[in-house]
Design brief:
60% of the residues lie in helices and 0% in strands. By secondary structure, the protein is an all-alpha fold. Helix 2 crosses helix 3 and helix 3 packs across helix 5. It is globular, with a radius of gyration of 14 Å. The model has no long low-confidence stretch (mean pLDDT 96).
Length: 102
């Protein structure tokens, strides 16, 4: 909801909902800083896209559930309701945005 102070039940913080470990990996010192958070989150998403051969669905699933969960389930979307809902929602937003910008 575009809230830089948002905190999830799992402890993800900020606009791109970075977990502490992910923020640390990408050098994000202040997860509540919009610029730091988006910078770290987009770099993480880029790395996930590389990791999963530009498969947007798997990259999004990994962003939500963790790359280990996707790998553990044979490079498929893990069988978590939250992750399936997240992937579907983001893909729908992506398709809508693409349609409106062409």
């Amino acid at each position: 909801a575009y809230d830089p102070n948002a905190v999830s039940r799992a402890g993800a913080v900020g606009l791109m909902q970075l977990m502490p470990e992910t923020a640390k990996r990408y050098g994000v010192r202040n997860r509540r800083s919009p610029s730091d958070n988006v910078n770290g989150g987009t770099r993480y998403l880029r790395d996930l896209l590389k990791m999963f051969n530009n498969n947007v669905t798997l990259a999004l699933a990994a962003y939500n559930a963790g790359e280990g969960a996707v790998k553990k389930h044979g490079n498929k979307v893990p069988p978590y309701k939250e992750t399936h809902n997240y992937v579907e929602k983001v893909i729908a937003y992506y398709k809508e945005f693409r349609k409106n910008t062409s």
